[in-house]
Amino acid sequence: MKKLLVSALIAFGLMAGSAQADYTLIVPQEPGKGTSVWGEIIAKNLEKFLPDGEKVVIRHIPGARDIPGYNKFHNSLRFDDKTIMVAHGGNGVSFLLDKVDYNYFEYDLIGSMNNDIVLGKQNGKDEKTGTWIIAGGSGYEPDGAALAMLVCGPQPNGSIDAYLECWRDRVNWINGVAGGEKRLGFMNGEFDVTRESPAAWNRFYTDVEQELWFTHGILDLENKVQMNDPNFPGSQMEDVYEKLWGERPSGELYEAYRLTRNWRDVVQKSLWVNKGNPNTQILRDALHEMINDPVASAEIYAKTGTYPWIEGKDGQKMLDIMKSLITEDALKNAVRWNQEAYGFPSIYKPELLEQ
C-alpha cells in the first residue's frame, strides 16, 4: 500500500510538473533576424497572459531558406503539447513552391498578423521607360511579379510568356545580395527598387529622396478581398497599376502573384500548434489578452506597424480563403515564373490541390 501511495504521488507530481512546464517557441531562423526579433517580443509578452505563469522559451532552428526548423516541428516537435511554431512569409511561399514536410492544414492557428510589405523606388523613376534593377531573393517572389506587371503593363491574357519577354528586356534581378547591402545599394542609387517591412520603411525612409511605390495590401477576411493597407492608404498594387495603365491587372501572372502574395503576407508572422493540441484555447485566450493590452501591443506594433490580427477562431476562415487561391493554373504559373524569372528551383506540387 505504501509503495502504491508513493507511486501515485510520484505520478501526480510528474503530471503536475508537465502541466506547469514552460512553452517552447520554435523560430526557424538564427537570432537577430526579423522573425527572430518578432518572436522574442511575442514570447516576452505572451507569457504575461498565460494563466499558470509558464514562460515561453525560444528555440532557434535555422537552416536553408528557414525550412529545416519548420520541418522539424512538423515531423516531431509538434506532438509536444507545449511547443509553438513561428512561421513567416518565406515559409508560406516555400509551402507552395518548395519540397517541404510541413503543412498548415494540419495545425491549429493561434494567431497571425495580417501584414504587408512596402516597396519603394527611386524618386521620379518612370515605370514605362528604361531598365529596372532590384536585389531580389527568397521571400521576394510576389514583389518581383508585381514589379513586372507595373513596368510591363497589360499583356495579352496577362501571359507568363509575354511578361518573361518584357522581364528579360527591362528588369535586372540580382540574387545573393545581403539585406543590409540591399538597403545601402538602394539609398546610393545602385538599385531602383527596394522592399521593406512597414516598420523598416518608416524607420529608414521617412526623410530620404526615394518614394514609396506600392504595398500589397492586406486581406479583408470578411469580404474575401484584398484591401488597402491602413498605414499606407491608396498605395495598393492594384490601384497603382490602374492609375498607370487605365485598367486592373489580370491574367496568368496576376493570379500567380495573388497566390504567392497572400500565402506570404497573411501568414507572414503567425503562431501554430498541432491540430487538436489541448492547450490551443489557452494560447488563443492569452494571445487575445496580449493583443488587447496597450503596453504589449505597442511594443509589438513598434516592430511590425499597426496591423490587425487574425485570431485562432478565424483560422479556418483564413485557410479556406488561402486554399481557394491554389488553383492548378495559378500554381503552375507561379512555379514557372519563379524558375524562369528568378532562377529559383521551384517545383509543382499537385497534392496542394487536394487539401
Write the layout of secondary structure elements.
Layout: H1 2-19, E1 23-27, H2 34-46, E2 56-60, H3 68-75, E3 83-88, H4 89-97, E4 107-113, E5 118-121, E6 132-135, H5 141-152, H6 160-170, E7 171-174, H7 179-187, E8 193-196, H8 198-204, E9 211-215, E10 218-220, E11 225-227, H9 237-245, H10 252-265, E12 269-274, H11 280-291, H12 294-304, E13 309-311, H13 315-324, H14 328-342
Parallel strand pairs: 1-2, 1-3, 6-7
Antiparallel strand pairs: 3-12, 4-12, 4-13, 5-8, 5-9, 10-11
Polypeptide structure, described:
With 355 residues, the chain is an alpha/beta fold. It folds into two domains: 2-115 and 267-313, Bordetella uptake gene, domain 1 (D-Maltodextrin-Binding Protein, domain 2, 3-Layer(aba) Sandwich), CATH 3.40.190.150; 118-264 and 326-354, no CATH class. Helices cover 45% and strands 17% of the residues. It has helices at 2-19, 34-46, 68-75, 89-97, 141-152, 160-170, 179-187, 198-204, 237-245, 252-265, 280-291, 294-304, 315-324, 328-342; strands at residues 23-27, 56-60, 83-88, 107-113, 118-121, 132-135, 171-174, 193-196, 211-215, 218-220, 225-227, 269-274, 309-311. The strands form four sheets. Strands 2-1-3-12-4-13 form a six-stranded mixed β-sheet, sandwiched between helices. Helix 2 links the parallel strand 1 and strand 2 (56-60). The longest helix is centred in the first third of the chain and has 18 residues, at 2-19. The N and C termini lie far apart (54 Å).
